[in-house]
């Protein structure tokens, strides 16, 4: 019994010391003040486009509690045209990567529109990357890395997410990739 009480007191004491430590509080403030996804986008030369309107009977986002669900989106370019084609036939892995990156930029534009301030993004939780690919193509993760690398570049550790990278026999309008996202927000 003495061991249990000693362990409990020790645990509570360490928790009390570590939580109230000025160094820990200062570090938490520094981390928060360094987090500025919009400044990061600026430094990367990325200008967010106007979010695309849904092309069917759905909405771009749905919020449930502190989770924001983003509908699947594709690589819509500034000229209003999608990057299209099958990766492994019409597009190289590198071109697919760029299509996934552009899709990420479009998803960030939707986030900005929904939240007003990208620093409200607490964590990119999940992404499902669908690659329009030939039946023998197997490098889906290399393509979807275009999205994932961008999320980490913009949101730092908060941009690391779980994901699926899968091949599809076709995608709407023959787009090269489609990615949907789940985001935790503040």
Element layout with pairings:
Blueprint: H1 2-20, H2 22-34, H3 37-43, E1 61-64, E2 67-73, H4 93-115, E3 121-132, H5 140-155, E4 162-168, E5 177-185
Parallel strand pairs: 3-4
Antiparallel strand pairs: 1-2, 2-5, 3-5
Helix pairs in contact: 4-5
Overall geometric form: globular
- What Rg do the Cα atoms give? 21 Å
Q: Which regions contain 5 or more consecutive residues with pLDDT less than 50?
A: 1-31
What is the spatial order of strands in the main beta sheet? 1-2-5-3-4
State the helicity in percent bands. Answer: 40-55%
Report how far the terminal alpha carbons are from each other.
43 Å
The total count of helices amounts to 5
Q: Do you know the CATH architecture of the largest domain?
A: 2-Layer Sandwich
Largest sheet: 5 strands, mixed
CATH class of the largest domain, named Alpha Beta
- Determine the CATH superfamily of the largest domain: RutC-like
Which percent range describes the beta-strand content? Answer: 15-25%
User: What would the CATH topology of the largest domain be?
Assistant: 60s Ribosomal Protein L30, Chain: A
Into how many domains do the coordinates divide? 2
The total strand number stands at 5
The helix-and-strand class reads alpha+beta
What is the succession of H and E elements? HHHEEHEHEE
Mean pLDDT: 88
């Amino acid at each position: 019994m003495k061991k249990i009480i000693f362990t409990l007191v020790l645990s509570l004491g360490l928790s009390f010391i570590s939580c109230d430590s000025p160094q820990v509080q200062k570090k938490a403030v520094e981390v928060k003040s360094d987090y500025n996804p919009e400044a990061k986008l600026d430094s990367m030369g990325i200008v967010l486009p106007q979010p695309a309107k849904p092309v069917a009977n759905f909405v771009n986002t749905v919020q449930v509690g502190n989770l924001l669900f983003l509908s699947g989106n594709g690589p819509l370019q500034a000229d209003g045209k999608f990057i299209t084609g099958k990766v492994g036939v019409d597009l190289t892995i590198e071109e697919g990567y760029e299509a996934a990156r552009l899709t990420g930029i479009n998803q960030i534009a939707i986030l900005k529109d929904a939240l007003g301030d990208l620093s409200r993004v607490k964590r990119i939780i999940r992404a499902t990357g669908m690659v329009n690919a030939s039946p023998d193509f197997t490098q889906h993760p290399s393509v979807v890395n275009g999205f994932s690398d961008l999320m980490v570049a913009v949101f730092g550790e908060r941009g690391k997410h779980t994901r699926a990278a899968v091949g599809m026999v076709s995608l709407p309008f023959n787009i090269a990739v489609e990615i949907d996202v789940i985001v935790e927000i503040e």
